[in-house]
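# step 3/5: fold
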Amino acid sequence: MIEIKNIVKTAGEKVILDDISLTIESGSFVVLIGPSGCGKTTLLNILAKIEPYEKGSISYQGQELKQIKQHHFFKRELGYLFQN
């Protein structure tokens, strides 16, 4: 299970993600859709530990994402398909 709580991501003065919360149950298949520039890729990059976030918390299987090393994270049945 992935729990995203109150995530905030900014780029200078621009707010990219503003107080995003989402729970993804184990075994779920999730697709993010929305218009260009709404933060889909940013959220996925944060989940993949490619980008940091300023506020909030993310836990994976009950463990804080910031505590999981990136190479261990990708061994845990999480897929990320890049657009290009």
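# step 4/5: annotate
The helical segments are 40-47, 70-73.
# step 5/5: archive (pending)
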